[in-house]
From TrEMBL:
Protein name, UniProt field: MYB family protein
InterPro entries documented for this protein: Homeodomain-like_sf, Myb_dom, Myb_TF_plants, SANT/Myb
The organism's place on the tree of life at top rank: Eukaryota
Keyword Nucleus: yes
Annotated ranges, domain Myb-like: 13-65, 66-116
One annotated GO molecular function: transcription cis-regulatory region binding
Record keywords: DNA-binding, Nucleus, Repeat
Organism: Populus trichocarpa
Biological processes annotated in GO: cell differentiation; regulation of DNA-templated transcription
Amino acid sequence: MATMKKESVKTMETMPNKGAWTAEEDRKLAEVIATHGAKRWRTIASKAALNRCGKSCRLRWLNYLRPNIKRGNISDQEEDLILRLHKLLGNRWSLIAGRLPGRTDNEIKNYWNSHLSKKINKKGKQIEASNRECQKIEKKTVEISLELKEDNKPHNGSEEGSNVNFNIDDLFDFTDEDTLNMEWMSRFLEMDEA
DNA sequence: AACAACCTCAACCGCATCAGA
DNA sequence: GTCTGATGCGGTTGAGGTTGT
C-alpha cells in the first residue's frame, strides 16, 4: 500500500517520513529493537535512522512487527469476547486487547468500527421493535386488569373483594442472559485481581 | 469496461497520563 | 510541588481494495 498523503514539498522536506512503512524500514526498526529493547522510542527512532518519530515506531512495532501477533480473521469466540468486554468496559480498546492474546487495540478498534458496531445497531433496532411490541402488550395488560378491577369492584366503592391478583413478575420474561453476564463479569474481575 | 459507492485497516493526531529530574 | 519529555490511548483519516450498477 503506497499510502502517501497530499503534502507540500516544504512539509515533505521538514517533517519526518510519513505514510506506509517499507520492508526496509520494518527490518531496520526490528533490528534496533532487538538490540535496545522496545522502550525509549525516540532513541529507537534516531538509532534506526528512519526519519520517523518515536510514536510512529512504537505504533508500527505494537501493531505489526511485535512477535506473537495473530493475523487474520477474528474467530466467533474472539468476537463474542470482544462484545462482552465492550459491554463491560466500553471503548477501552487496549484493555480489551489485553484479554485477546495476539490482537492489538488498533485491530480490535477497527473490527468494532467496521463490523460489530453495525451488528449492534442492527440488533438494537430489533430490540427497539420488540420493546415497542412489549410496551403494546404491557399497555393492553394494564387496560385489561383495570377493566377487570372495574367489573369486580363492589358497588360500595371498596377495593376489597377484587379477584384480580396482579403479579408484576408475570409482565417480564427474563432470559438467562443477564444472569450469565453477571457470572462472567465476576470471573473477569477475579482475573484482574489475580 | 467504467464509474461510483462502500469497506477495510494502517497510520496519524491530539490529548491524557506517567516518570524522572 | 512542578516542569518537561516520554509513552499510551482513543478518535479520525484516507489510500487502496472490493462490490454494485
